[in-house]
């Protein structure tokens, strides 16, 4: 079961790189291989970087994670309740 989850995870991560490489194949430009290789390396490295950052953050805030998560959730709720409407009004005024 874990192997199936890993395969699905890897396929979902690589799908956007595959689609980008396919669309890059249609374009007449130099350095297609370099561009495709750069995207592939980024797709491979970013999950590893996120894993290490998440592991480090987990060790730092491990016991306090519930409290920090609750405070962050309340902060987002307060921001949405009191400040989100002002941004929409300013946007509608600029369109006029």
How would you describe this structure to a colleague?
With 96 residues, the protein is mainly α. It has one domain (2-95). It contains four helices and no strands. α1 packs antiparallel against α2 (32-61). The radius of gyration is 21 Å and the shape is extended.
Radius of gyration: 21 Å
Ends distance? 56 Å
Tally the beta strands. 0
H and E order: HHHH
- Domain unit count: 1
Number of helices: 4
- Strand content is under 5%
Class by alpha and beta content? mainly alpha
Instruction: Describe the sheet with the most strands.
Output: none
Shape, principal axes of CA atoms: extended
Overall mean confidence score, pLDDT? 82
Kindly state the percentage of residues in helix. over 70%
Low-confidence stretches: none
What can be said about this structure in brief?
The chain is mainly alpha-helical and 96 residues long.
List keywords for this structure.
Manganese efflux pump; transmembrane; single chain; mainly alpha; 96 residues; 4 helices
Describe the SSE topology.
Layout: H1 2-26, H2 32-61, H3 65-82, H4 84-95
Helix pairs in contact: 1-2
């Amino acid at each position: 079961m874990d192997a199936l989850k890993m395969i699905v995870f890897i396929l979902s991560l690589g799908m956007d790189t595959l689609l980008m490489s396919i669309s890059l194949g249609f374009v007449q430009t130099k350095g297609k291989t370099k561009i495709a290789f750069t995207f592939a390396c980024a797709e491979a490295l970013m999950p590893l970087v996120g894993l290490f950052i998440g592991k480090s953050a987990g060790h730092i805030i491990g016991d306090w994670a519930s409290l920090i998560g609750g405070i962050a959730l309340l902060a987002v709720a307060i921001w949405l309740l009191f400040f989100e409407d002002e941004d929409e009004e300013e946007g509608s005024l600029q369109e006029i």
